[in-house]
Amino acid sequence: MTEAPVAHRPWPIFWLLAVTQFMVILDTTIVAIALPEIQRDVGFTPSGLSWVMDGYMLVFGGFVLLGGRAADLAGRRRMLVLGMTLFVLSSVLCVMATEPWMLVVGRMVQGLGGALASPAALALVLQVLPEGASRTRGMAIWGGIAGVAGPTGVLLGGALSEVAWELVFVINAPIGIAVIVFGLRMLPGGQRYVKGDLDVFGALSGTAGLCLLVFGVMRGAVEGWGSAVTVLTLGAAVVLLLAFVARQVKAANPLLPRSLFGVPTVVLGVAASGLLGMALYGSFITNTLNLQQARGYSAIVAALLLIPLDICLFAGTSVAGRIMARMGPSTVLSSGLGLQAVALVWWASVLDAHDNVWLSTVLPASVASFGLGAAIVCVFVIGTSNVSGELSGTASGMVVTANQVGGAIGIAALTTVAATHTTGLLAGGAPDRAQAVSSGQSVALWVAAGVAAVGALVGLLLKRDHGATWRRATPVAAGGAAPE
């Protein structure tokens, strides 16, 4: 089916969609600082409290791929409005929660709402912004939002929870209602963009497999990678994901159209998105834990120290938006991730629990954030380029899914590495606990540097094989062949 025409006034629509994306990413972290108050007032056990954050990430990461395909099949405006409606209603449920299960269910429904709204919003951005400078500028801002919203959630959550923890959910309702009202008036109509029906088996196996993968990774970081729950969950995830892959090969209308896998920019862009998510979320949580566990700062002070990182990240997105058209997104991607890798090595080398926090943490972390900001813009551009508007929702879902699943893996891997190294030092008789914690987190940053370096290599591979032709390639349509 044909794509709707580009909007005559795209930028008001873009900013409406940007607010949607900001809300969805913000809610991954906004409750973090409010958790102690939530535990006291709602009655969570220490082990159950983690589900306030994990429930959102689990459902969001597991369902976003399905959300992207649903946007192409059922209409992007329809999916965005449905997603935001679920988001608002679930936020109200969270505010009213008097029992732990009510809050966890509310957070899971929030995650489902975000999974439906986020890929639809990105697909609509690609639809309403004309190709060229406008789209490049828009994607630069979009990438900045994706990177800045998480740390901003920590800062905003700290401020709101000082008054009442319920406010971290209350804030969603008026903004979400405004998005729904203006979205129904401003967004392109809710027509279907591709023919065919939803691959039900593929949707069930893929979504369940992704959910179990995210759950298994999160549990592995807490209970150990050899625990029965972790092993059984990850094993089930592998079986379901293999069944999903087999289904995609044979299905008449697969959840992931086979034509997308013949587009190098999509395949490598999705890979880069996963690696970037690992480095982004993994280094972010490592830094947050270091400021609080090793240095002893309060949550609000730690959040304030993240502000320079936010500024540098957004500066990186702005620079990338200006130079990407001249240099090509693959060059900017490899340069940004390369800079981040170097900065992470620097950071890991100087991290010390007792040294000046600005020199041993904030400065190298800010340089890493600048490189990350430049790279995150390119991931969204590359992963959704050379694909027709008919499949942009599915491609968007793939990019966002890779980023979220990569983020969950990054958090689990880096926290496990840090904890294991710290435990070994303390068991060996290390006298300074703060320094032992900081040393473990330094090792985690070395791992993050390696992940960023691999991402930079992906950018170089894109540049070598396809960087010169990514703008000229024929877009892939639904059911069509990939460009040679």
Automatic annotation (TrEMBL):
<feature type="domain" description="Major facilitator superfamily (MFS) profile">
    <location>
        <begin position="13"/>
        <end position="467"/>
    </location>
</feature>
<feature type="transmembrane region" description="Helical">
    <location>
        <begin position="167"/>
        <end position="188"/>
    </location>
</feature>
<dbReference type="InterPro" id="IPR036259">
    <property type="entry name" value="MFS_trans_sf"/>
</dbReference>
<dbReference type="InterPro" id="IPR020846">
    <property type="entry name" value="MFS_dom"/>
</dbReference>
<keyword id="KW-0813">Transport</keyword>
<keyword id="KW-0472">Membrane</keyword>
<feature type="transmembrane region" description="Helical">
    <location>
        <begin position="200"/>
        <end position="218"/>
    </location>
</feature>
<feature type="transmembrane region" description="Helical">
    <location>
        <begin position="141"/>
        <end position="161"/>
    </location>
</feature>
<feature type="transmembrane region" description="Helical">
    <location>
        <begin position="443"/>
        <end position="462"/>
    </location>
</feature>
<keyword id="KW-1003">Cell membrane</keyword>
<feature type="transmembrane region" description="Helical">
    <location>
        <begin position="405"/>
        <end position="423"/>
    </location>
</feature>
<feature type="transmembrane region" description="Helical">
    <location>
        <begin position="259"/>
        <end position="284"/>
    </location>
</feature>
<dbReference type="Pfam" id="PF07690">
    <property type="entry name" value="MFS_1"/>
</dbReference>
<keyword id="KW-0812">Transmembrane</keyword>
<feature type="transmembrane region" description="Helical">
    <location>
        <begin position="79"/>
        <end position="98"/>
    </location>
</feature>
<protein>
    <submittedName>
        <fullName>EmrB/QacA subfamily drug resistance transporter</fullName>
    </submittedName>
</protein>
<keyword id="KW-1133">Transmembrane helix</keyword>
<dbReference type="InterPro" id="IPR005829">
    <property type="entry name" value="Sugar_transporter_CS"/>
</dbReference>
<dbReference type="InterPro" id="IPR011701">
    <property type="entry name" value="MFS"/>
</dbReference>
<feature type="transmembrane region" description="Helical">
    <location>
        <begin position="332"/>
        <end position="350"/>
    </location>
</feature>
<feature type="transmembrane region" description="Helical">
    <location>
        <begin position="48"/>
        <end position="67"/>
    </location>
</feature>
<feature type="transmembrane region" description="Helical">
    <location>
        <begin position="296"/>
        <end position="320"/>
    </location>
</feature>
<feature type="transmembrane region" description="Helical">
    <location>
        <begin position="110"/>
        <end position="129"/>
    </location>
</feature>
<feature type="transmembrane region" description="Helical">
    <location>
        <begin position="12"/>
        <end position="36"/>
    </location>
</feature>
<feature type="transmembrane region" description="Helical">
    <location>
        <begin position="224"/>
        <end position="247"/>
    </location>
</feature>
<feature type="transmembrane region" description="Helical">
    <location>
        <begin position="362"/>
        <end position="384"/>
    </location>
</feature>
